[in-house]
Design brief:
The complex is a heterodimer. By secondary structure, chain A is mostly helical. In chain A, α10 crosses α11. The termini of chain A are far apart. Chain A has a domain of 202 residues. Chain A contains 12 helices and 2 strands, in the order αααααββααααααα. In chain A, β1 and β2 form a beta hairpin. By secondary structure, chain B is an all-alpha fold. Chain B has a single domain, classed as ABC transporter involved in vitamin B12 uptake, BtuC, CATH 1.10.3470. Chain B is 75% helix and 1% strand. Chain B contains 14 helices and 2 strands; from the N terminus they run ααααααβααααβαααα. In chain B, α2 crosses α11 and α3 packs antiparallel against α4. The longest helix of chain B has 29 residues. Classes of the chains: A mainly alpha, B mainly alpha. Chains A and B meet through α5, α10 and α12 of A and α5, α11 and α13 of B.
Amino acid sequence: MMSHILNVLLSGVFHASILFLVAAGLQVVFGVQKIFNLACGSFYALGAYVGVSFVQAFLRAGLPPELFVLALVAGGLCAAVVGPVVERGLLRFVYDRDETFQLLLTFAVVLMLEDAIRMVWGTSPLSTGGLYLLYGQVRILGVTVPVYNLIVIGAGLLIALLIGYMLTRTKFGRIIRAAADNREMAEALGVDMPWMYVRVFTLGTVLGTVGGALVIPATATMTEMGIELIVEAFAVVVIGGLGSMRGAFVGALVVGILRSIAISTYPELEMLLIYLIVIAVLVLKPRGLFGEVGV
Amino acid sequence: MRAAGLAVVAAVILSVPFVAGDFHTTLMLPFFAYSVILLGFNLLFGYTGLLSFGHSLFIGIGAYAAAFLTSKFGVMHLEASLLAAAAAAGLVAAPIGALCVRYVKIYFAMLTLAFGMLFYSFLLKFYFVTGGDEGMRVLQPFLLAFDLSAMPKIRFLTGPYYYYSVAVLAVATFVMWRIVSSPFGLCLRSIRDNPNKAEFLGVSVKRYRWYAFMISAVYAAVGGALLGPTTGQVDPNLAYWTHSGNIVFMTLLGGFANFFGPLVGALVFIFLQDTVMSVVPYWRFVFGAILAFLVIFAPGGLMGLLDAQVARWGEKARHVGAPT
C-alpha cells in the first residue's frame, strides 16, 4: 500500500516537473508581456523533436551514451532560437492591441509550428530508444524508479530555485518584476522595453523547449504533443494564478499528482478531474492560489 | 441595393447543385453548418465583445445529440435532432453561461476553454456512452418526415439535404438579423463598447451577456447537428480546443465587424483548406501564416478590406448593418 502511494506520487512529481517548466514559461511571458502564449506547448514539442535529433547525432558521432543528457539539454537550448524569431517577427506588432488578437496570434504560431514539425520530422513517433534506463533504476521503500526520473525531478527543482533566485536577487529579475508591475513606469525609468521583451520571451521559450527535451527519453514524440500539453499547462497556471511563479510550482504539483492518482485509480477521470478543479478555481478564486493580476 | 445583393447570393447558392459537381456541392454542406455556428458565435464575439475559446463544446453537444437520436434511439427525423440539439445546448449553456458571464476578456476565454475541454475529456474517456475516440455514427435522417433512405447517399446530400441546410441557414440568418437589429442587439453593442455606461443606463449587463451566451450556444448546437449527416460520423475532435480556435479563425478571416463577415470567412476557410490540402498536406502552416497576417495587418478581415476598398472608391461604405 505504502509503496503503491509512493509510486503514484513519484510518477506524479515527474510529470509535475515537466509541467512546471512549460507553465513557468507561460507565466513569465504573461507576467511581463501580458500575452497568454498558446504556443508554449508548441515550443515544448519543438524542444522534444530537436532533443531527439541531437541525441541521435550525439550517438552517431560515437560520443559516450552516458552523457546523452547533455545532448538533450543542448537540443532544448538550441530549439529556443524560435523564441526571439516569433517575438521579433510577429508578437512585437500586437503589444498595443486587444488581448483577443494577441491570443489569436499565438494560435497562429501553434498552427505553423505543428506543421513545421511534421515537415521536418514526419508523423511517426521518435524516441531515444533504451537510453531511458541507461542510468539504471533504484529501489526506494520497495518502489522501483528509473534514475532518469529522479534526474528530471532534480532538474525541475534546480530550475525552480534558479528562477526564484533570479527574480528576487538579480538586477534582471528586479527589472522583470518592475515591468510586470507597471510597464510605463519601468519604461520611463529607462528600461529598454523591446530588448526586455525579447529576453523575457526567449526565457519563456527556453523553459518550454528544455522541458520538452527532458521529457522525451521517458516517452516518444507525437505531432499532437504540443497542443495536448498546452491545455495541461493552462490548467496549471489557472490553478496557481496567472503570472505567478509560485503558482506555477504549486499548480504543477497539484495537476501532476492528481493526474497520476486518477490514472492509477479511475482512468476515465484523468483530465475530467483536472478541468473540474480548474473550473472550481476560476469560479471561486479567479485569481488562482497565488495570482496577483486583476480580473 | 442590399436586396439585390441578397437575391444574387441566394440565386447562386440555390443553383450550385445544378452547375457545380457533386464534390463542390458537398463542400457547401459544412459551409452551411459552420455559417449557423458562426452567426451565433459572432453575436457573442462581434456584438457583445466576449471571446469564447470553448465554442466547440456546443458544436459537440449538437453533433452528439443528432448521433444519439439516430443511432441509439432510432429517431430519424432531422427536425427532432435539431430541436434536441438546441434544447440540450440551452440546458447546458444556462448554468455554464451564468458562471462565465461573470468574467470578461482573457478570463472568459479561459473559463469557456476549460468547459470545452471538460466535455472533450468526457467524450473521449466515457467510451461506453460516447464511443470514445472512434465517435458515433450518424444515420441518414428523414427530412420533413420523408424517409429518403432508399436514395443513394451522394444524391441525398447534393439534393434534399443541400436544400434543407440552405433553409435552416436562411431561417437562422433571418432570426439573427432580427436579433441584432432589435433593441436587445443594440444593448449588446452598448455592453461591448462600454459596460459601465450600459449598466448606468439601465442595461442589466450580466443578464444580457447571459442571454447572448445561450442564443449563441443554441446556434452552435444546431450547426453541429447539421455537420453530422454529411460525414455520417461524429468524433470527440469536434469538441477539442483547436476546433474552437478554427471557429475564431473563420470569424476573423471574414471580419467580425460585419454581419455577414463570419459567413464569408467560413466559405473561404472551407474552400481554401480543400485547395491547399490538394497541393500540400501542410494546410495548418499556410493557415497559421494567413491568420498571423490577418491579425497583424488586417484585423477587420476580408469584409474589412472590402469595405476599405469600397470607401476608397469614393462610395459610401455600405456596412450591412455592421457594428463598427
